[in-house]
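Pipeline run #58 for the internal structure catalog. This entry was flagged by the ingest filter as a single-chain record with no existing model, so it goes straight to prediction. Upstream metadata was stripped on purpose; only the residue string is passed forward. Reviewer on rotation: M.T. Logging verbosity set to normal.
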Amino acid sequence: MKILLLALCFALSFGHLATAQTTPVQDVLQSQRALIEKSSRRSIGPAIDALVASGLPQMQTVFEVWQAKEMWQRKADGLFFAATKNADGTFTLLDFEDRGEVGTAASTDLKQLKPNSGVRAMIATALVQFQLSDPDPAKRADALNSIARDPEVALLAPLRGSIAGETDEDILARKTRLERLMTMAYDNDIPSRVAAITEMSGDLGVDFRATLNPILSTTRVVAQTQPDANIAQEVNVGSDTLTRADAYALLVAAGDAPVEITVDARDATLEAQIDGGRIAGFPVAQLSTENARDKVYDALVERGLAAPRVTQADIAASLASYRFFDVYAEPSQVVTNAAEAAVSASQTRVAISQVADLGLDALSLASIYFLAAIGLAITFGVMGVINMAHGEFIMMGAYTGYVVQQFVPNHTASILIAVPLAFAVTFAAGVALERLVVRWLYHRPLETLLATFGVSIALQQLAKNIFGTQARPLTSPPWLDGAWAINDVVSISYIRIAIFVLAFLFLALFLFIMKLTRLGLETRAVTQNPKMAASMGINPDRVNMLTFGLGSGIAGIAGVAIGLFAKVTSEMGSDYIVQSFMTVVVGGVGNIWGTLAGAAMIGGFQKGVEFLNPSNTLAAQTYMIIFIIIFIQFRPRGIIALKGRAAGD
């Protein structure tokens, strides 16, 4: 009876093993069993190729399990399984066919396959081919990222095959672009490569230019006649790209000319031959001149103790016997010609895009300067008050935004609250400054300058006492993160766009106040003729107070905007006070359109200097001040000067 039971168990077990062995996945794995067991980077390639060539969709699971070191081999029959460890130390075996459980086994009955890093890299390459058509879009995107990082010719065909069935538009665009790039680099068909290059000619993508660079890479070769290769150019000795010394060094490296004996090499040889205070019979004490050393060295050459010196005549003769060429690494001239044309078109578009990007940067900087100067245009341009504390009002607005964010964690809500609150705080501070200090110093510009300068120092110290000397963060809302990328060259951050829009809104607000409100009418009247305005029932003191407060309030809002991308410190106002004064003076005192024009001129000039001299950030400030000094010699009243009676004041 026991014998029958054992026979039955053996039969069932054998039947199970036979079933497992006859599954398509196991058949392929068993056919490559020896290589898989060895798992050597040098020998595993054919096994991986065989698994891929099987076309079985389950091979993706095999590769994933194998790469994760979770594939096990049963010692009894050599079959491969995925396995999960149980609480009692045994392993549940999972079949690769349908991931179903096929039994359990003790750890002693199994062998874990642990591929090294080299084998795992090869598995990853094979796995990419399956992931390109995976139902999960994230896995398809990861596969594209993997190919882009490490493209291989073997991946071109699977990539092409996956394009037809792609349903995601973004992934389809990425696949199509990557296929074009890989076609340029790896396709064996020359017309296909040329067509891909021509199709993408002028593209601004960094990946496109990076693909063309290896195609257009050259190696400098030396030959007596023109080599049978794809020649980029013949290089003349003595040109900027090939000096005589470099050319002769190439000959020496190629073994076509003897090594030139330098002065140091000559002296080292002489020192090595010193014997009893003499070299080749010559006293060392007499070798104080170059000619004497050359003579002794030649004596060593005659005795066979030193290598012959190479004369300039020898060098000239050697150089005259050889020609120098830059040879493309790409053997096809048709391909390199297409690549050259594509690179030229790309460079033209890159240059145009760089100009556009520089223009956006200049416009962005101009909007920042305008936003910082618009309040000063009111207090200095309209009222004629030199307010050196204007920068500190900007600083107060930025700190107001920081304080609001400490109580309102939602960054969008905090900014919406901070903008009007900063206006209110700095408006009140401006009114207090005008009532307590400035009102007593009208028409006394030097005293006003000194007084407001003292106030600015006091405000800076007060900010240090309250907030400390470390920079404080003013975090922008999430919808202002990132940048608007027009292409791979032209981009502008959303914060800069927001500041530009804010500057435009304040320009419109200022024009509305000055042209269509009673305060604007009274301000213009007081500016042009205070006595006549007073006789018409206008209170000049009240108008001056409100105007000064308005300019200070706008500076506070500018501080919130500037604090979103600049450091918020007690000294941040001093970074903008000089530019603000220059903007108002260059544009034209008392004219808002002049302030706008001045901001555009200064922002454009500064960005232009930075573009031409990017390594020196201080050069832009220096050249800008020199430019303004020269500019005001020819237009002392600015770009747009006031006309009429106010201009004469």
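catalog note: The domain at 350-648 is CATH 1.10.3470 (ABC transporter involved in vitamin B12 uptake, BtuC).
catalog note: The chain has a mean pLDDT of 82.
status: ready for reviewer M.T.
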